[in-house]
Amino acid sequence: MTRFIFITGGVVSSLGKGLASASLGALLQARGYKVRLRKLDPYINVDPGTMSPYQHGEVYVTDDGAETDLDLGHYERFTNVDAKQSDNVTTGRIYSQVIARERRGEYLGATIQVIPHITDAIKEFVKADLNGEDFVLCEIGGTVGDIESLPFLEAIRQLGNDLGRRQTMFVHVTLVPFIAAAGELKTKPTQHSVRELQNVGIQADLLLCRSEQTIPDSERRKIANFCNVREDAVIPAMDVKNIYQVPVSYHAEGLDREVCRHFELDYAEEPDLEPWEHVAKRAVEPEGEVAVAVVGKYTGLKDAYKSLSEALAHGGIANNVKVNLKWIESEIFENGGTVQALEDAHAILVPGGFGERGAEGKIEAARFARERGVPYFGICFGMQMAVVEAARNLAGIEKAGSTEFGPCEEPIVGLMTEWKKDGIRETRDEGSDKGGTMRLGAYPCVLGDNSRVKQIYDEAEISERHRHRYEVNMAYEPHLAKAGLIFSGKSPDGVLPEIVEIPDHPWFIGVQFHPELKSRPFQPHPLFTDFIRAAVDQSRLV
Ligand code: GLN
């Protein structure tokens, strides 16, 4: 039997609902259950692919090429279950589906309404594409009380009735703020939020109460009484130092035990959380530290590079060091700023990005790293800019540039108009829709013999996830190779360049894909592990 756990949030946003869901998934997994996590987002965009990372954080890409919410990244990192397109849906996608069906006449003349047509489509989504999971955890984005979330709440309320209490559970994440002036924890916002849920017919079964302070038993009792929840099911969820401590901490407060109890499952045997304890210990008690400069455009909002900072942290865990990130706005190099900011970095990383603003600064950063022998990791846009830099300054192609910034005499990076995915030809042109039309998802890549990347991966063929519209121009390969930049990873048909490296440099690698999306705390990505190792070597030199 597949059981459904619906996770809603109340009081304020940014309560860490995604992490809480991911942690509950990990705990149930540690108890031997098969889990799947899904995110239902109430906004109108069809997917977050067209949203600014400033507003919504990073776009997480799955193997099957879906552009999804960054919470799916937490789910994958915590459970190691690969997410799919069928794990993230938005209001926009649901409405698009329903309207398309209406246009095809599939509703046989009915008047299309939120209830039942939209809610039915949401329910279908929740139950679709499952494969013998014991638990499906569905997180509802936004905060209870938002207009947009109403159809989602109605749909999960109905599912509670359709499937019955033994197959569904409602978890509500709330905030219990500490009011310093009064020296007290306040339970009233939680009471209101739970009542808001009751207004739409949902009775929370378990409350996860985020708080900076320990919640005393008296307050727990009060919350239980006012919110109509058993006292044991009021779980204090205290702030922790590191996100990888969350599963162990929530377990200690009884989260997974209470979920098992709700479903009348045996909970007497303790789950094995040793791997989590190990990772958390490594993360909070490292033996050394290194500084990595991340030269990007959205450095103001750390969520814009969520998977990247996690992957770097995993590289740190693997090398038993803390990775201190120095976020550097690439435009500073263009506005008369000096490369001084890079001087004390032990390694430099230029992540993915879009558009011309800040591009010259990234090229400068790549040049600095190449000339000074500082480890350089270029990811997607960071690879493209490193190739432009090498073309200009190593191969002497002065006008080298990318057509992403307009017409270009020497298009080292150009718009990709045709490629193959699973043997099927895909084409795009300048006028294509912006949403969902990039080279997206997992593609195979063959690693060059005797290359550094082959040594690092210890494999001949790899699969990595993509999200880009432009591509390094293969026509320039001979020039660049002669100048010292080799193409060490290519698509199996040899048509698409995937990895470049400079053999004559301590560590200079650019990848067209996003390796950060596949790094896990228990299986740090080999490129990040080796990049941080190189940073540690560099830190011993300076
Ligand atoms: N803007 C570049 C492209 O579309 C790089 C994209 C990225 O870094 N994800 O190809």
List the keywords.
seven-stranded parallel β-sheet, 18 helices, single chain, Rossmann fold, 23% strand, 2 domains, globular, nine-stranded mixed β-sheet, 542 residues, 25 strands, binds glutamine, alpha/beta
Q: Tell me the β content.
A: 15-25%
Bound molecules: glutamine
What is the topology, as strand order, of the major beta sheet?
13-12-14-15-25-24-23-20-21
Query: From the 3D coordinates, which CATH architecture of the largest domain would you assign?
Result: 3-Layer(aba) Sandwich
The total domain count is 2
Radius of gyration: 25 Å
Unreliable runs = none
- Cα(first) to Cα(last) distance is 59 Å
Summary of the model, kept short:
The protein is α/β, with parallel strands linked by helices and 542 residues long.
SSE blueprint and pairings:
Elements: E1 3-9, H1 17-30, E2 35-41, H2 53-56, E3 60-61, E4 67-68, H3 71-79, E5 88-90, H4 91-103, H5 114-127, E6 135-140, H6 150-163, E7 168-175, E8 178-179, E9 184-185, H7 188-199, E10 206-211, H8 217-227, E11 234-238, H9 246-252, H10 255-262, H11 274-284, E12 288-296, H12 306-319, E13 321-329, H13 340-343, E14 347-350, H14 359-372, E15 376-379, H15 381-393, E16 400-402, E17 410-415, E18 418-421, E19 424-427, E20 439-447, H16 452-457, E21 461-468, E22 470-472, H17 477-483, E23 486-490, E24 497-501, E25 508-511, H18 526-541
Bound molecules: glutamine.
Glutamine is lined by residues 352-354, 380-381, 404, 467-470.
